[in-house]
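Take a look at my tokenised protein here and describe the backbone shape.
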Amino acid sequence: MKPVRVLAVASEVYPIVKTGGLADVAGALPLALKAHGVEMRTLMPGYPDVMRLLAGATEIRRWPDYFGGPGRLLAGSHDGLDLFVLDVPHLYDRPGNPYVTADGVDWPDNGVRFAALSRIAADIGHGLVPAFVPDVVHAHDWQAGLAPAYLHYDNRPRPGTVMTIHNMAYQGKFARELTGAIGLPWESSFDVHGLEYFGGISFLKAGLQLADRITTVSPTYAHEIQSDEGGMGLGGLLRERAGVLSGILNGIDIEVWNPQTDPHIAYRFGAQDLTFRAANKAVLQQQFNLDSSDEAPLLGVISRLSWQKGLDLLLEAIPTILAEGMQLALLGSGDRDLQDRYKAVARANPGRIGVMIGYDEILAHLIQAGSDALLVPSRFEPCGLTQLCALRYGAVPIVARVGGLEDTIVDIGEAGTSGRDATGFKFGPVTADAFAGALRKANAAFHDKPTWRRLQLSGLATDVSWRNRAGDYAALYRDLMASRA
């Protein structure tokens, strides 16, 4: 089988820089693809954390003026990942979050910052690095959306292009005046068939319009985003391009998320013996100042606090949680109003509701290992990763019937008709009443120990790895190459 060379373009890559699921995918997929004959190198910006970890990287090219200041292209590796790094200090040498200021406001030059990333991706696609000339350039989310556009408008022989949507809600919208400043031809690119989007420009729209193939991170989400509501202004475009759109489920790194070897949990365990889950639960209850009780179902949440994630619905479900004798341990941050409301609920219900604002990777692992059920009440969810981790750790998912949650969890009432073993609970429509009903159903199942154990064991037996998913990407790349031959 002929090897395939792919340049991935991503604004964050785990374990180097992470703000969400995009980083997990960008970090895990290249490693999984090696078994399928795909050599993937990932291009990312030279944020401070990246430069510290790749201090010994090799300089490939240097420019005195790259989008307004000196820049370099570096090559290096970290944790098994082969990387290209665009080191442009005036664009990327900033503290904290890659996208926003300390006040949570978008950096005003984000359009230039990520146009620069896409421009160098196109140049690598054209052969800037002779030792690695890619067959395919794979752009992730709006931050890389101009890579297919630059390659298209360069009017030169080029590699195939793939655009992956991780979340339609983030579209990279900017003023139309940016078009010329970032080196795209105004006459041909500022057009309904190019970057133009309601009088401005959208990096995501450009990628969706001009890439050879489009993927998103679950089959159900691929269907949802073709609707006017789910497409968030781009549904019509995605319906037009439905023939090149596919949904490939995300996986998780089963070495990082492995309860038998996980260094972050209090007690390790496996599917053969779940005894130590109770010990992890006790430690989790201590961490969140919850009453020590093995008989109270402990619900875990690891989430951004936002409307999309349905965290306002969870607040409405607090009376049900309390009436059913359940406990809640929530780790997350986001909307300030939601943060304040959750802290108030925790203060009003000591021993029953525990809340920690922020994100802590170690605590996230403990929540998976110690909670009885994991809640994901999202209004839309392209794929979702926390429910996959929950399956791996024996925490039973309770999820909304949307996107990748629909595709990855088998509801207790669907097991017979689907031919698959039940792994959790799904509710729809995404309302407070439907969510409360799922919680009551889960509570009844929790107190039926044989039923709950079957749910846990079915989850633990589910393949949530990248093995098969990576094969789907490899097949996509090869199909794209064959179509362009």
The chain has 22 helices and 18 strands. The chain has two domains: 4-251+467-484, 275-460. The first strand starts at residue 4 and ends at 9. The mean pLDDT is 96.
